[in-house]
Write a structure and sequence with these properties.
About 20% of the residues lie in helices and about 40% in strands. The chain has about 150 residues and is of the alpha+beta class.
Amino acid sequence: MPLSVHQLLSATNHDDVYRVDEVELNIVKIVGILSNAQEHTTNFTFLINDGSGAIECKLWIEKDASGMSKIAGLRNGLLARVIGNIREYDNKIHLSVYDAQPVQDWNELTYHILDVTHTHLLNTKGPLQVNLRNFLPFFPFFLTFYDW
């Protein structure tokens, strides 16, 4: 589920189930600027800031089949896409990261913001109810395709 950091930090927790807009959180996606990157022997910790807030993220280091680490290319000041699961440790929320990748195109940030907005509206207001008859003055060619 695409989220902003603010939505993630304000998620409600009931019986270790986190919810945003009354929807249970499983896997979340955040796009933001990576900062405070620290590599340890077993994990890579960093903050991700999307303008609405910052959240601590932890990525467990594993080498893939080619011997490359998941953290290759991640550095401070980089726009990154982070996919993970919300966790709580010592009464502090953080993101347990499954995948973190540098973003190559800044249009992905715009798309992510629109996706967050769309998902929020869909979860709070429901799907858009459209009546095609309201659009007939603007699109008269509908009359040729549909029998009204």
